[in-house]
Structures are given as C-alpha cells and as structure tokens.
C-alpha cells in the first residue's frame, strides 16, 4: 500500500512510523509529509532512510491510506483533497471528530461492519481513548450514570515542542532553582519543571477548558451514550510520556463487586490489570510508556456511596491514545 503520514516529524507522526514498523503494516511505499520547514529531513523506516516532503494537495495522488497528525487546520485543508484523490483518511486531529457521519473510532469498542464503507475515520482525543478503554467493558456489569475524572497529563500530549519545553525547563531549574525565565516559555505556558497546572487550552463560558470539553463530548460519542454525565478536570504534570487518570464511576444502582470488575477488565482486549494491593503496585506513567495496553488498577468501592467504583488508569497517549489506535483502524479497514 502507498501510505502517507502528514505530520511525520511530530510526536504522533514519529510514533506512527514505529507502530507501522512493529506491526508489519503492509507499507509498499511510505510518504512522510510535513511543513515546508522539514522538507529534506531524513527519517528512519524499516532500516532505510526516507525523505520528508511538503504536505501539498498533489502529494496524495495514488495514496491508499493517509494518516493525519498535523493539527486540525491542516486536516481541514488537506483531508478533503486526499479523499478526492482516493485515499482513505485516518485523522488524529479534532477537525472531524464530532461530525455525525464520521466514526470516532476505538476498534475495541465501537467499529461496526457498517463503518467499513467509510473513507474517513477520526481518532478520538487521547484522554478520551484511555478513559473509554477502561470504562467500556464495565458497561456489561451495570448502567452507568456518571463519570468523575481527573487527569494527570504528560507533556507529549502537547507535542514535540511541549516535551522540549519540559526538558529545557527541568535542566534550567536544576541549575538555577527557578527554571526558564517567563519570557522564554512557549505560548505563555506556566513554569513546567516540578509543577502541576490546569490544562493549557482555552476556557469556555462555562469554565471548562477545551480538553475537558473534548473528553466529555467524545466520551459520549465513543460509548454511544449521549446522556452520560461527566465531570472532568484536566491537568498537566511534569511527565514526558503517558497520561494517568483517576476515574470514579457512578452506577445507577449498586457498583459491581470488585472481583467481578477485575475479571472483566482482565478479559478485555487492550487492557492490563496492575492491581497488587499487598505490594502497592499500580499503574503509573513510566510503566505505561511505550506499551500498547492501557493499565488499570486501584479497583475499589467508595464507602460513602454503594453506587461508586474507583479506578486508576495509565496509558501511553502517543501509542493507544493516537498512533496505535490509528493503525488498528487501518488494519480493521483493510482486513479482508
Ligand atoms: N501528542 C499527542 O499525544 C496527541 C494525541 C492524539 C492526537 N494528537 C493530535 O495529533 C496532531 C499532531 O500532534 P503532535 O503532538 O504530533 O504535534 P507536534 O509534535 O507538534 O507535530 C506537529 C506535526 O505537524 C506538522 N505541521 C505543522 N504545521 C504544518 C503545516 N503547515 N503543513 C504540514 N505539516 C505541518 C509538523 O511538521 P514540522 O515538523 O515541519 O513543523 C509536525 O510534523 C494534533 O492534531 C494533535 O491534536 C496528538
């Protein structure tokens, strides 16, 4: 297959290259695309060096599948052109996620045979993917009324630039105890090293930041539950890779027994239960980084209300939260 990656030089794009390689996706010809700034950059793929080209409309001639990870405005401009030229598009940006006709696809959860004919698939927000992977299998144990979620999101969720900022601010802090001067911080971000801050996306009239609003609407769409209540607080922590999330599920009636929850999660595909109370071993960001599975643990009831179940989850948001999920969609789409 002729495979294009738009945003091949970015955090998700780089991970897409690794996942395509590792899963032996049938790439006959790879076309890495990025902005004009990166033209001529050499990237490694399957032991060879491939050259980045500019993402222009003509680049999509003859492309079978195009993975987009270059931001919503680039997707809005180029996805229709890629589809016009016959490419199936799998888009990591937020551009098309909430369009009713576009599947917001997590293959373990919601793809159906009727989606096979589509030529555009949206990969959900990374925090929403990790959340729904853990929550979806538990719907067979009872009707859920509400999810209360607090996130601990890593720098790589903000792309390669945010990772660089965390590294540089940490180096500066270790040498001067203050970190980078405010005027050197990118995009008006707060200090990052040894700090925790509310997610750096714009706040709406209701006081929710954009990440929280995405997690709410996309979780409902992924699960096909438009009336599910969600209370979400998104926060960045000084971690390079993998998001953690504290999740409280409120069931309509009694929360299911902990052992049944554990068994259900162990049985679900794409999840690994890490829940050793004696050894105090639970999911963490370093454990989840570079792994495919979403890790789930701290499975427990809340003594204050018999309807509540708590979970603590960790998932590599570049892997299952973006690149792996995108490649899984392509594998599903082209599987005969
Ligand atoms: N990071 C995550 O965990 C994550 C998870 C899920 C979804 N996403 C989504 O994936 C997309 C990429 O995120 P990222 O984290 O990989 O960002 P990133 O590291 O900043 O990479 C951005 C990529 O977009 C390319 N790009 C920028 N402007 C362009 C233009 N005008 N034309 C063509 N290419 C252009 C960049 O190319 P140059 O190197 O040439 O500038 C780079 O390859 C975003 O839509 C993001 O919301 C990210």
Can you walk through the features of this model?
- Helices cover 29% and strands 23% of the residues.
- The protein has eight helices and 16 strands.
- The chain has 336 residues and is α/β, with parallel strands linked by helices.
- The strands form four sheets. A six-stranded parallel sheet has the order 5-2-1-6-7-8, with helices on both faces. A six-stranded mixed sheet has the order 11-9-13-16-15-14.
- The two termini are 14 Å apart.
- The mean pLDDT is 97.
- It has helices at residues 11-22, 72-84, 126-135, 160-176, 210-223, 258-267, 285-288, 319-334, and strands at residues 2-6, 29-34, 42-45, 48-51, 53-54, 65-68, 88-91, 120-122, 144-152, 197-198, 229-233, 235-236, 243-251, 271-273, 294-301, 308-315.
- Bound molecules: NADP nicotinamide-adenine-dinucleotide phosphate (NAP).
- NADP nicotinamide-adenine-dinucleotide phosphate binds at residues 7-13, 34-35, 37-38, 55, 69-72, 74, 92-93, 126, 156-157, 159-161, 317-318, 321-322.
Q: In DSSP terms, counting alpha (H) and pi (I) runs of 4 or more, how many helices?
A: 8
Question: How far is the N terminus from the C terminus?
Answer: 14 Å
Q: Which strand-content bin applies to the residues?
A: 15-25%
- Number of extended strands: 16
The strands making up the biggest β-sheet line up spatially as 5-2-1-6-7-8
Can you list the ligands bound to this structure? Answer: NADP nicotinamide-adenine-dinucleotide phosphate
Residue runs with pLDDT of under 50 for 5 or more positions: none
Could you spell the SSE succession in H and E letters? EHEEEEEHEEHEHEHEEEHEHEEH
Tell me the radius of gyration. 20 Å
């Amino acid at each position: 297959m002729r495979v294009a990656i738009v945003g091949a030089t970015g955090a998700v794009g780089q991970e897409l290259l690794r996942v395509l390689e590792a899963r032996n996706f049938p790439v006959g010809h790879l076309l890495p695309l990025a902005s004009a700034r990166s033209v001529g950059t050499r990237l490694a793929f399957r032991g060879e060096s491939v050259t980045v080209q500019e993402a222009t409309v003509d680049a999509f001639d003859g492309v079978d599948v195009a993975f987009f990870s270059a931001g919503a405005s680039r997707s809005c401009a180029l996805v229709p052109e890629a589809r016009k030229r016959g490419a199936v598009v799998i888009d990591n940006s937020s551009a098309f996620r909430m369009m009713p006709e576009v599947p917001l696809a997590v293959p373990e959860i919601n793809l159906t045979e009727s989606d096979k004919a589509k030529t555009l698939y949206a990969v959900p927000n990374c925090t929403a993917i990790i959340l729904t992977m853990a929550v979806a299998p538990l719907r067979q144990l009872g009707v859920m009324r509400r999810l209360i979620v607090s996130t601990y999101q890593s720098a790589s969720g903000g792309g390669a630039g945010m990772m660089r900022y965390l590294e540089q601010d940490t180096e500066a802090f270790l040498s001067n105890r203050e970190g980078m001067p405010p005027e050197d911080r990118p995009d008006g971000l707060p200090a990052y090293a040894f700090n925790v801050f509310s997610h750096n996306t714009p706040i709406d009239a209701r006081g929710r930041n954009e990440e929280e609003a995405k997690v709410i609407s996309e979780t409902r769409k992924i699960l096909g539950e438009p009336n599910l209540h969600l209370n979400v607080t998104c926060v960045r922590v000084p971690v390079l890779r993998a998001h953690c999330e504290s999740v409280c599920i409120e069931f309509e009636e009694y929360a299911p027994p902990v052992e049944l929850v554990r068994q259900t999660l162990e049985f679900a595909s794409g999840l690994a239960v890490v829940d050793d109370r004696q050894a105090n071993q639970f999911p963490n960001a370093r454990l989840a980084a570079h792994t495919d599975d979403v890790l789930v643990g701290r499975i427990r009831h809340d003594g204050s209300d018999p309807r509540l179940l708590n979970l603590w989850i960790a998932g590599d948001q570049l892997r299952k939260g973006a690149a792996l999920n995108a490649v899984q969609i392509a594998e599903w789409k082209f599987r005969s």
